[in-house]
């Protein structure tokens, strides 16, 4: 049976895939197995002591995959989850025993990288004080109605418990500030030089607001061998806005 590795974006956690997992459990026949790695610094887990780098995140991915050696893999990364997959790819999908894994497909959804030098938000988040303040503002309950309108298309259609946990996840995300040091223009240029001929599959919503679809031209220029799928109607969080459509979409990708 194929396995689908699901990687969430920054500030998030398992909450973002709850509707997906619920729909999967309702299927009479499973054609794949969803797998969610336990990344350090997310879902209340601490960050390892010492200088923050890619290593603990990559180790978590390697250990997750190594624990389930049978079956082919499809990798899906959303936001910084996709950037994390790029970093693993530049290292040859290296595994703990020194072997190299080759996933069947690599799906990169609304990820961070090519637009870093063209967007204001990454520049704003350079000072650590700004990062800490932004993280607290996103998690602060009085601000939730503002963020809900900014992040979701129809907030009222998302179960209250999931919406509440979505923002609570930010409060307990020790990794949130780390990725602003790891995902930089310099990092992206190095990754792009190594991976530019790879046939990744990029996914973007045509209503995307967090990493606007107008930045796709940079990705298309930098990854000429990649496939680009622009999904009508999707914003940044279709797994919450349109869970059935999102589930059907990934199911098709895994089974193709």
List the topology elements.
Layout: E1 2-7, H1 18-25, E2 32-35, H2 55-66, E3 73-78, H3 80-90, E4 105-109, H4 120-124, H5 128-139, H6 144-151, H7 160-171, H8 179-182, H9 185-195, E5 201-205, H10 216-222, E6 227-231, H11 238-241, H12 243-255
Helix pairs in contact: 1-12, 5-7
Question: What features would you describe in this structure?
Answer:
With 256 residues, the protein is an alpha/beta fold. The protein has a single domain (2-255), classed as Alpha/Beta hydrolase fold, catalytic domain (Rossmann fold, 3-Layer(aba) Sandwich), CATH 3.40.50.1820. Helix content is 42%, strand content 12%. It contains twelve helices and six strands. The chain has helices spanning 18-25, 55-66, 80-90, 120-124, 128-139, 144-151, 160-171, 179-182, 185-195, 216-222, 238-241, 243-255; strands at 2-7, 32-35, 73-78, 105-109, 201-205, 227-231. The protein has a six-stranded parallel beta sheet with strand order 2-1-3-4-5-6. Helix 5 (128-139) packs antiparallel against helix 7 (160-171). The longest helix is centred in the C-terminal third of the chain and has 13 residues, at 243-255. The radius of gyration is 17 Å and the shape is globular. The two termini are 13 Å apart. The mean pLDDT is 94.
